[in-house]
Amino acid sequence: MASTALKMLVDVHSHVYLPRYTALLRSRTTVPLIKTLTTPDGKPDDRLLILDHEPSGGRPVGPQYWDRDEKLKFMDKHGIDVTVVSTANPWLDFLPPPEAHKLALELNEDLEQYCSSSPKVDAGNSTQIPRLFGFGLLPLVPEVSVSSLLESIKQISELPHLRGVIMGTRGVGKGLDDEALDPVWEAIEKAGLVVFVHPHYGVDPKAWGEKDNGHVLPLALGFPFETTTAITRLILAGVLDRFPSLKLLLAHSGGALPVLSSRLSSCVVHDPVVASRLKHDARYYIGKLYLDAVSYGPEEMGFASESIARAGRYENGSQETATQKALSVKRSLGSKRMMFGTDHPFFPPLSTTEKWKSVVENLQAIEEVQGWSEEDKDGVRGGNAVELFNLKA
Amino acid sequence: MASTALKMLVDVHSHVYLPRYTALLRSRTTVPLIKTLTTPDGKPDDRLLILDHEPSGGRPVGPQYWDRDEKLKFMDKHGIDVTVVSTANPWLDFLPPPEAHKLALELNEDLEQYCSSSPKVDAGNSTQIPRLFGFGLLPLVPEVSVSSLLESIKQISELPHLRGVIMGTRGVGKGLDDEALDPVWEAIEKAGLVVFVHPHYGVDPKAWGEKDNGHVLPLALGFPFETTTAITRLILAGVLDRFPSLKLLLAHSGGALPVLSSRLSSCVVHDPVVASRLKHDARYYIGKLYLDAVSYGPEEMGFASESIARAGRYENGSQETATQKALSVKRSLGSKRMMFGTDHPFFPPLSTTEKWKSVVENLQAIEEVQGWSEEDKDGVRGGNAVELFNLKA
Questions:
Q1: Where is the Amidohydrolase-related domain (chains A, B) (predicted)?
Q2: Domain total for chain B?
Q3: Per residue in A192-227, pLDDT tens?
């Protein structure tokens, strides 16, 4: 299929607060919430507060967060053909189980409608496909029933434009290494849905010290630390041994997980109890993951690609010699599991007319990765997502 | 000098608890401490507890932590010619200022003695140099006086076998981005001492969840997260703009800092207040750092090397075009700031006769980095350390 399909630019990391979710945020008096201030010249000034220790009184929020036309305008401006849209953090994490359950089902229907009624784009082979697909929501909150989670997975798998689920790192309160999630992983794996794992909580803000660095530290470091920790715990709990076909797509290129994976392997090997729980060297599991290409630099992307490519060396029972192993690291191979993303509508440009720097940088980084062929780059820009999400009419 | 010197293997990341420090740990009843249990067959069983939430009742500790003969035996076993030894964490962090001051001065004298009386090794050019050099200690604790810190820097710079200082990430209580440290950086820079920045605290252990993963998560992830955070804060506070000749050597290849540096740059650019404080793009500062080669994988080392090599692109006012910038990334260049290390006596092997896996892995990783010449590898194995620490008789 890939060979006859048009070259498309597909954004797998793009967020929305649907109107129903926005209304909820506006109705709230504790974080997360949207509050409306007034500018000095009397205009309304909506502010989003989503973190417990939100610096500088929240961030400006506007139609780009909820208006589909704004999403499409952004896509047009940057030549993005198709976007797989997901609700932005903190999803339903803060709701009691009955509300989370109800809202998940409603928001999944809303998102299906948002996608199914979108304009279409030529996908080659004389076919037209919608420009918008989506990740659904599960009511992942403490004390939710398994049946509630399974019901929403079933719903998502039956909604034709939803191709995965987005989730944070808390699971049902105890993280992604909680055995209580096994029925969830099982159902998701069976349905062939992609799980987009995305951070929200960062780490304890005491780590950031007393200086005012705005959002820089929690976003630049806290987010990737959180994703790294969550997936490491998931790996150490054997989730990828029990559910080897699970498709996990990690935000921000997996954070620090690839670069710490050899250190992780070494620490595991030195702890026989942990080591005995795992079927393979820790580095093997990096090759089971999918990573967005949202790391802003060609060297970062090239390295992430290598960390996937080398994973085969670390399969238990692999018969390769050391030299064969060294030779087997082909960045090309790793690129197949990496996919362009924008993080829209976050990181807006400082002026309204220009292209978004974050988008331009990530596209340029993909272009500049040494060792990726043009075909590899086309894959990262769109072909890999077309295949993973089966983006057809 | 390097061209006529012998090829040496130099370990820049190797720890000791000197007898005076061990005695202090044995005398204590709160962490950090060494306690002596008894084995089922009646033998004494020393246990080291250094973390506030130490899992599994501490780790076995023995002569390798304090006996110089054990250090030399370890060096012989692995062909290490010279080691630059440093006190292991948590250094003097837990002491009141007068005790920290007194002990710093005493331990620096002890370490000088430990090194100066060590056996010698042929360093080429018909010269013999000691096999042991050292990093001294500063009394970096809350409410210490600047004069106390400056006194210990002066002492270290006058002790012939001490070539730097080791420090944690708390500074005098508020981290390494605290302006109170400016006189310390200034004196260290002037003395030409190398600062070995090493983690101890990790992150809030709530991040590790409820499963028992031994020491794996705090060591594999918490340590690098801590170093990454500390140096990022130092960079954002402009320390490397104010002290551009400061020589910072980061433990564990700088943790996640290189791989998150493009994301960091992007977050800084989107925050004009933070951006306006810095002279250069965040990635520029990676090129001012030195990294140990303790990351256990050739791809990790190659990437770290690239992150240093590319730093010149990001100097403010750099006139390179995009194409020149892409071409200018030569891993070779980055290797000059990387240095072999072992983390001895941590990560001991599971049996006593074998070579230490952690050492073998890091040496093999250096050997396998793609894009490093034999000369680059010799530099990482020893030549770079000989030059940085001026390892002469």
A1: 149-391
A2: 1
A3: 999 999 999 999 999 999 999 999 999 999 999 999
